[in-house]
Amino acid sequence: MNGFLVGKASEIPEGEKKIILANGRSIGVYNIGGEFFAIRNICPHQGAALCSGITSAFINSSGPGNFVYEREGEIVRCPWHQWEFDIKTGCMIVDPNKRTKSYEVTVERFDVSIEDKDLYVHL
After folding, report:
1. Which domains are assigned to the chain?
2. 4 contact partners, CB below 8 Å, separation of at least 6
3. What is the pTM of this model?
4. Which end of the chain has less neighbouring CB within 10 Å, N or C?
């Protein structure tokens, strides 16, 4: 597996994302609760730039007029047709068989100092 240097982990604050171009692929790298996740920046429906869509929570309901927000910041919504995907897995919310590619992300620590964390996406 090849690693692609994204930058310092501190460049992507919690709840934010960074869109990168890695070996010709547009990839969104997200910081969710201090953990990093990466998905392909293409909606499988019609090819929209998925990661430019709204990042939100999962809305759950037990019945009419009753709803709760869960998993804040873990869902990205396609800007063209509002298809929603789980950032952690790349799976579509309503049909997990449809998905966008997800990538492994690691934070590499070097002996220089604890602040010098380099963020890699493994392709």
Report:
1. 3-122 (2.102.10.10)
2. 20, 22, 23, 120, 121, 122, 123
3. 0.83
4. N
